[in-house]
Amino acid sequence: MLKKKIPVKSHTATHVKNNHEYLIDESSLYLSVGSGPVQEHRIIPQKQHHWISGYCWLTHQHSVTIDATETDNHYHATPVTPAPCSLESAAVAIKKTTLIYAIHAFQTASFFYKDTSITHSAAILDTQATLIASGQDLSTEHALYKAVGHWLNTNTPPITMLMISGAITQSIVQYAQHLGCYWIISRLAPTHAAYTQAQAMGIGIIGFARINRFSVFCLPPIHNAIIGS
Q1: Using the 8-state DSSP alphabet, how is residue 58 labeled?
Q2: How far apart are the C-alpha atoms of 117 and 102, rounded to whole Å?
Q3: Is the pTM of this model over 0.85?
Q4: CA-CA distance, 79 to 30, in Å (whole number)?
């Protein structure tokens, strides 16, 4: 069970009533990469191999083979193939209607948040803005690691768009560059450093994304980047 239902008392200004809320589970994952030390990571105990693959691909810039050691939550990863670090495909324009459908698909995939309100989500979309991989965890970065691990388990089609639930930070922009994304979409806003870096890299940022509205912070360097605006 990844979430547990517990009794709570819900208070308003005038009333108190018995209620129930869900709490998400978390556990320690112990990972060593190559000859490096064992490090502890707190994650939702779901799709651990996706998390390890995505974490190593983004932070160590290698695909890896994964060996479980000692117990189910102790792992060793051996680096194999270097991960690319460039925007390899050309930037593509997106239709406003397609973007709205993609936001809806992302929200539908974020099912843990609907029950617990504390998890973060990340999703990877292909050149048709179709959601091809997703992840959920306690932080945006951990959710992204799971989404990338999921993507690596597919035939790794070209990526156009990265969707996240949290703030767009400088590290998220760098990860987008590794993935070959020209668009980052979030329910929140970018930091100033992320905004500046995205502009320099030619990556578009869309924040405050909801099903019926969004804010464009910057665009990739192509004509009519959002069709229907």
Answers
A1: I
A2: 21
A3: yes
A4: 17
